[in-house]
Specification:
The chain contains 7 helices and 10 strands. The protein is of the alpha/beta class. Strand 8 and strand 9 form a beta hairpin. Helix 5 runs parallel beside helix 6. It is globular and about 40 Å long. The C terminus is likely disordered.
Length: about 230
């Protein structure tokens, strides 16, 4: 065994073709995706970008299992500037505890960035989902630093065109509809990019954003939805 190989065997040196290990990770709920992500899931202490040409292709379905797991364990989730008003019955049907969800609608782009950063720095936010309008690299860097200093899972939804821009995010996924599935291109991760996209089957019994014909909520879920100013189907 050569000297270099001996060093590689004895020390945790990352090799270019291998996946680096994130500090900790949260399972995505999709085994095929977990197998391709460092440490087997969504990175904690890091920023994840989800890039899609159009909203409503299943991008939220990709994060709902993690959102349900965290809120079900009593952890707080914060959504900043979602494109449409979240639909409470759909979230509850997906297993999200509405009492642990906070939706923030800042009046400006600058306020939205501040709210997202403060949520991560607060120590009481365990999963962040943010939709920011045309963030600059320096602003993304501030958000990435805040995510790395936290123990939260941080998602940033951006247009697909942003894939051509530099980003400090540790994980970037480009998403495209693929029939009843979602095509997931891993364009950046701690390790080599994934050559071929993954096809993840998504259940689509409801819309998470916007109104739809869904079962009504009752009891605690309905009261939680009203406290969050989310629509409750009547």
């Amino acid at each position: 065994m050569g000297a270099l190989e001996e060093i590689l065997q004895r020390h945790p040196v990352w090799r270019g073709g291998a996946l680096a290990k994130a500090v900790t990770a949260l399972p995505t709920g999709f085994a095929a995706l977990d197998a391709e992500l460092p440490s087997g899931g969504w990175p904690r202490q890091g920023l994840t970008e989800l890039l899609a040409e159009d909203a409503g292709i299943g991008e939220l379905g990709l994060i709902l299992p993690a959102l349900a797991a965290l809120t079900g364990a009593g952890k707080r989730a914060v959504w900043v500037s979602p494109l449409h008003l979240p639909y409470a019955p759909a979230l509850a049907a997906a297993g999200v505890d509405l009492t642990a969800l906070v939706v923030v609608a800042p009046p400006s782009r600058r306020d939205a960035l501040w709210a997202a950063e403060q949520a991560l720095r607060s120590g009481s936010c365990h999963v962040l989902a943010a939709w920011l309008k045309k963030p600059r690299y320096a602003e993304l860097q501030r958000l990435a630093v805040a995510a790395e200093a936290s123990h939260a899972v941080a998602f940033l939804f951006r247009p697909l065109a942003a894939a051509a821009e530099s980003s400090p995010a540790c994980l970037r996924l480009a998403l495209e509809p693929a029939g009843a599935a979602l095509a997931v291109h891993i364009i950046k991760r701690r390790g080599a990019p994934l050559a071929a996209p993954l096809r993840l089957p998504l259940e689509r019994p409801f819309h998470v954003l916007g109104r739809a014909s869904l079962p009504r909520l009752a009891g605690d879920d309905a009261r939680a939805a009203r406290r969050l100013h989310l629509p409750v189907h009547a």
